[in-house]
Amino acid sequence: MKNKLLKTVSDCKNIFFNAKLLLNYIKGEKSGKKYFVYKFSQSIISALIPLILMTLPGLLINTLSREEFALYECVVYLGIILVLPVLNYFINVFLNYQLKKVTQQIELGIDINFYKHIMTMDYEVYENPDIQINKSRSLSALSKVWSVSDILFGFITQIISLLTVILVISFLNPVLLILVVFFSILFSIIKKKVNKSLFTLDQKGSEIDRRMWGVTYMLDQQDYAKEIRLFNMPDLLLNEYKRVKEESIDLNMDYLKKQNVPNNYNSFLELVQNIFIYIYLVFNVVKKSMPIGNFAIYLSYYGKLEGVLKGFLSSFLELAQISLNVDELNQFMKLPKKIHDSGNLHPNYSKGSIIEFRNVSFKYPGSDIYALKNVNISIDSNEKLCIVGPNGAGKSTFIKLLTRLYSPTEGIILLNGRNIAEYDAEEYMRLFSPVFQDFVKYYFSIGINIALTADYDVNKLDRIMRQCHLDSLIQKLPKGYDTQVSKWIDPEGIEPSGGENQRIAIARALYNEGKIYILDEPTAALDPNAEYEIYMQFNNMIIDKCAILVTHRLSAVQLADKVAVFNNGQIAEYGTHAELYAKGGIYTEMFDKQAQFYRNE
Ligand code: ADP
Ligand code: MG
Q1: CB atoms closer than 10 angstroms to residue 92
Q2: Which of 246, 433, 462, 555 reaches 20 to 30 Å from 481, CA-CA?
Q3: Is the predicted pLDDT of residue 526 greater than 80, yes or no?
């Protein structure tokens, strides 16, 4: 019993602790203080005004029922009774307006922080599927900030009302007080139990929903229509539909029945409670000549006591529910930024710089298989390296490690003899101009899409557009570089074709000139000739730069100084095209197979 009590106390502590953590997101914003002042004033006002309005009519009745007529008292009571609601209304209009204003400012700040966190966390962490799930739950916890604040400030209102009501009622009869408190707690316990069983019904409900979705999809999608007719399947599908629907009906009725349980008990509890209260009050008026106004006051105070107590307890249950989510949010916001917190050396990449992979192995988080195994390679500052190999060989993984999106599991990567982790991550990453296979388009103007800044150099952009054969596209557009990408956002915008998108991605890499260019199969969707064309153009544009060209086709190898053949996460062969071809290994085999294919074509 004692242990159980201790656990309850520590649970409560934890719930309030989590609520406070959530409020810290509000507190951390510039308008946070204002918000709390408004919210606090609102709680006090919402406690006091109803109490005053509950009491005054009773006092007025008492004054009126006295022998001598007290004009002054009557006028004061009446005045307050009439004016207070109007005053209350205007105060609330003012407070709600102010609260809406600061709430939106605070929300903006919180959102920006959250999205910034997402966009700057280690890519390695970001890509982890567990983290993705965690992220959406954290976002939902964050959206509960306002409910938590409402509940906590609601507590202030409820506590003030509760204390006042208890004080007044205990003058009359503490026994009745205990009765109301006892019944309210009983109601909350029943409600909590029922909530729990409703939760399991909810889970069963979503399982049924999923099955329902499946059946109705088959019933009425064109893909199924042919087979349904030819295999005569309507009965099979309709029987399943009927079965699922019947289960759903049963569940709904069950839900309704369970949901009503607390209210059923409650109506009975209320009946008993009211019998006691009325008998007692009538007895007091008749036998002990209690003023008739007090009868009215006590009656409304008992009503209030019951209402506030139940409200208080159910708010607490809600808070406990939210608290579960907050733990997750906290873990999420504390995810380490390993890469961003590391090193502060300035990378100096110039002629003669060397990047070296030394015994580098890598496993993806949660995987037992090495995506890269014992990779050793050096890349010079003016070298064109071509990485070839079948799908899944580890080529893109190599690029991710090189660009520091991931860190090696074993071994190190060095730039000019220093571990790349020792360099400032942002500066290190800016050495690269990558074009990935899954390059993206940004929903900005076409100019920003390439320059990645609103403040771009038009001459430089013109030059690059010509190099990438995009100048004719721009010339066709009335708004030029200001044309929005995607008609979805602006009906006058453009939808670049697949090939144009590719060129835009390449132009982006060229505009944001880095020291090291990377093409990781951005042209995989093109036919080999078109791919070769693009690689060659690209090669001509970056003559004295370092470039890494990744492909599983071999047409680009003629452009490269060195070729690395990746296979099963390892560099199987390395050298110039001529050396490798002469060797008669995997490379020769791959090359001949592809060459044969083109010849046959
Ligand atoms: P390539 O670019 O040569 O086609 P990748 O480097 O993309 O190959 O993939 C190498 C291996 O790592 C593959 O077996 C692939 O399934 C696995 N892999 C790639 N990305 C991930 C990831 N994010 N999580 C887990 N495994 C991955
Ligand atoms: Mg790849």
Answers
A1: 15
A2: 433
A3: no
- C-alpha distances (whole Å) from 559 to each of 149, 312, 473, 577 are 63, 74, 28, 9
Q: How close is the Cα of 122 to the center of ligand 1, in Å? A: 18
Return the residue whose CA atom lies nearest to atom 13 of ligand 1: 392
Residue 322 has pLDDT above 70, yes or no: yes
**For residue 435, pLDDT beyond 70:** yes
Tokens 């080529």 found at: 395
Q: What angle do CA 43, 44, 50 make, to 5 degrees?
A: 95
DSSP for residue 494: B
Strand (E) or helix (H) holding 385: strand 384-388
Q: Which residues sit with Cβ closer than 5 angstroms to ligand 2, an ion?
A: 396
Residue nearest to atom 22 of ligand 1 (CA): 364
Closest ligand 1 atom to Cα of 521: 2
Nearest CA to ligand 1 atom 17: 371
Position 220: which residue type? D
Q: How far apart are CA 20 and CA 145, in angstroms?
A: 10
What is the helix, strand, coil percentage profile of the chain, to 5?
70, 10, 20
Q: Counting beta carbons within 10 angstroms of the beta carbon of residue 372, is it exposed (0 to 12), middle (13 to 18) or buried (19 or more)?
A: buried
Rounded CA gap, 191 and 187, in Å? 6
- Residue showing tokens 């109007």: 86
Select from 364, 369, 409, 518 the residue to mutate for testing ligand 1; criterion: most ligand atoms less than 8 Å from CB.
Answer: 364
Q: How far apart are CA 543 and CA 579, in angstroms?
A: 23
Label residue 294 by pLDDT band (50, 70, 90): confident
Among 526, 521, 474, which residue's Cα sits nearest to residue 498?
A: 526
How many helices (H) and strands (E) are present in the chain, helices listed first? 20, 10
Ligand 1 mean position to 402 CA, how many Å? 15
Q: Report the pLDDT value the prediction gives residue 599, as an integer from 0 to 100.
A: 67
Q: How many CA atoms lie within 13 A of 544 on its CB side?
A: 3
* 127 ligand 1 Cβ < 6 A: yes
Q: Tell me the average pLDDT across 113-127.
A: 90
How close is the Cα of 399 to the center of ligand 2, in Å? 9
The phi, psi pair for 410, rounded to 5°, reads: -135, 155
Is any ligand 1 atom within 6 A of the Cβ of residue 396? yes
Q: Check whether 221 has a pLDDT greater than 90.
A: no
Q: Which pLDDT belongs to residue 463?
A: 94
From the list 540, 535, 500, the residue with the least C-alpha distance to 518 is 535
State how far the Cα of 388 lies from the Cα of 384, in Å rounded to an integer.
13
Confirm if 519 and 435 have CB atoms less than 8 A apart. yes
> What's CA 585's distance to the chain center, in Å?
50
Predicted model pTM: 0.78
Task: Quote the ligand 2 centre to 341 CA distance (angstroms).
Answer: 28
- Cβ of 394 closer than 6 Å to ligand 1, yes or no, is yes
Residue 430 — very low, low, confident or very high, per pLDDT cuts 50/70/90? very high
C-alpha 397 – ligand 1 centre gap (Å): 6
Q: Return the bridge partners of 387, or none.
A: 550, 564
Sheet holding 418-419, edge to edge: 370-380, 354-363, 410-415, 418-419
Please report which ligand is nearest the Cα atom of 397.
1
